[in-house]
Structures are given as structure tokens and as C-alpha cells.
Amino acid sequence: MTTGLSDAAASTSRVDIGPIRRPFFGRHGASVAAAVIFAALGLLPLLAWVLGDPFLLVTATRLTIFAIAALSLDLVLGYGAMVSFGHAAFIGLGAYSVAILAANGIEDIFLQTLAAILACAFFALITGAISLRTKGVYFIMITLAFGQMAYFFMVSLSAYGGDDGITLSNRSTLFGTDVLESDLVLFYGALGFLILAFISLRALVASRFGRVLRGTRDNRLRMQAIGFAPFPYQLTAYVIAGAIAGVAGVFLANQAEFVSPAYMSWQRSGELIVMVVLGGMGTLIGAIAGAIAFLLLEDWLAQFSEHWKLWLGILLVLMVLFTRGGIAGLGRRLFGRAGP
């Protein structure tokens, strides 16, 4: 009797389930999409030269820098379910690491980047250890509070421009040379770091650490029940994300040759969250695509109306409502097919 029931269940299972189908976009398409995006970014300098439009290269550098920042936020927001409303503080700390060290005679970009990583990691460690004692809306508010504390601290530094910011006399040096004065070199440096960060974070989220982080996001109590303490994993992810965002700040300071407390404002943090949500949380490549799409929409709409923020908001609301999973989710639906 038991055997008959088992056979019937197995037969029903085979009929109902059928062959396992894996979406092409989910398994292989993320790599293809990443390669396409990185190749397109890499070809923008050539397009700028062909069109005789040097501003296109500046735009490409800005896209790349904010893609780095959005990528770092996706680690904590998309994989750790930590809605940080103070993530821009790390960008500002990275940028001020360049400005403060340059003002004191240290102009090498490697030393400035190291200082930015250490400063952001320390700030993330302290604030994260406190913030992660809370959850939900309380976590959002406490990260916002820490971000604003960093913002007003930089406003109070009159020696480094205060609220007016500080203009850099020149860009950082590389092994004593001024090669970063070239917009092309700066762009490819930022693009190279973006690719490195993407590959590293992709390996991280695929590792045991990443599986625990995602498990905590999906069901915190279950992870605790099987013996995993979420706190150290979430804190580690928070520190890593802060350090990567700090490097984005280093590139932003060199690209603009200007540093301001505005880099750390809560509005900038909100924009980063929108970029990640627009691209698709928990996908990495979606964060990059979301940052690019957001900034391009911003520039495009500004050409038609001084009220472009209104139209941008409407477009973003429509995209969130009708493209489930953001740009990455749309890609899955458009390019999904049977896997091997």
C-alpha cells in the first residue's frame, strides 16, 4: 500500500513539475549583462572622441563612480536587508580623506585611498555596531542620524572650507606623476575599480558568508535556530560596503576637484537607495544598471524642464510599480529561457 502511494506520488510529481527550467538571465545572463555594461562604459571615451564631446567622458566617469557607490549599498540593502539612510557619509569621508591629506602635503592616491578605506571602515564599524542593535524603521533613523552627524561635523571644519567646501589645487598623484590629470586615465581607473569591486562582491555573496547573509535577510530567526549569529555577518558586510563607498569618494573628489559636505547629505543617501531599487535589489549588476539609468534620466530630463525632478519621480514610481525586480527583474523576464 505504501509502495503504491509512493509510486503514485512520484508519478504525479513527474507530471506536475516537468523538467527543471533555469532562467538564462539568472544563471548566465548576469555575467553577460555585466560584460555588456562594462564594455559599453569602456567604449564611451572613444565615442566622446568621435563626437568631439569631452563632457561625455566626464559623464562616463560620474556614472562609474556612482555605480561603485550603488554597488556597495546593494551589499547591505539587497543582501543584508539593512536600509541604510546614511550611506552617503562614506562617500563624503572618502572625498575628505583626499582633501585633508592633500592640504597636508600627501597627494599620492594610494595613500589617500588607504586612508579613506580605514576611515570609512572605522566609522562603519562604530556606527554599524550601534545601528545593528536596532531593526526596521529604527535602523533607518539611526543610520540617518549618524549620516547627518558626519555631515554637520564636516560643515563645522572651517579649516577645510566648512559649508562652502574646499577646492583641490590639483588631482592626486600616482607614484609621483600627474597622470590622473588626464580625464581618460581617471575614468579607466574608476572603471577598473568598479569591475574589481563587482567581481569581489559577486564571489563574496556566493560564498558561505554570502549565503548566511542572505539567509538572515530571508529569515533571521531560522538562521539563529540553526546556530548562526546574524550580527557579526551583518556588521562585516556593513564595514565592507562602507570601505568600497569610501573609494568612490576618492574618485569623486578627483573627478570634481572639489569636496563639499553636500556629498554626505541624506538626499544623496536617498538617491543611492533609489538607484539600487531601480536596478533591482540583491543582484549587484542591477545596482550598477540602476545607477547608470538614474543619472542618465536625471541629465536627460533636465534638458526639457526646470521641474525635471517631478517627472523623474513620476517615472521612477511607474518603473517600480510595473517592473517588478527593477531593471534586473525586467531583464530576467525578457531574456529568460531554459537552461541546460
Q: Report the span from N to C terminus.
A: 37 Å
Shape label: globular
- Kindly report the CATH topology: ABC transporter involved in vitamin B12 uptake, BtuC
Radius of gyration over alpha carbons? 22 Å
Mean pLDDT: 87
The main sheet orders its strands as 1-2
CATH architecture designation = Orthogonal Bundle
Helix residue percentage:
over 70%
Q: What is the total domain count?
A: 1
What ranges have pLDDT less than 50 throughout 5 or more consecutive residues?
1-27
Write the H/E string, N to C: HHHHHHEHHHHEHHHH
Number of strands: 2
- Biggest sheet descriptor: 2 strands, antiparallel
Number of helices: 14
Strand fraction: under 5%
Structural class: mainly alpha
CATH class: Mainly Alpha
What features would you describe in this structure?
Its main location: membrane. It is found in: Cell membrane. The chain has about 350 residues and is mainly alpha-helical. The protein has one domain (about 45-335): ABC transporter involved in vitamin B12 uptake, BtuC, CATH 1.10.3470. Helix content is about 75%, strand content about 0%. The chain has 14 helices and 2 strands. The chain has helices at about 1-15, 25-50, 55-75, 90-105, 110-130, 135-155, 185-205, 210-220, 220-225, 230-255, 265-280, 285-300, 310-320, 325-335, and strands at about 165, 260. It has a two-stranded antiparallel ribbon with strand order 1-2. Mean pLDDT is about 85; it is low at about 1-25.
Quick overview:
This protein is an all-alpha fold. The protein is built from 14 helices and 2 strands.
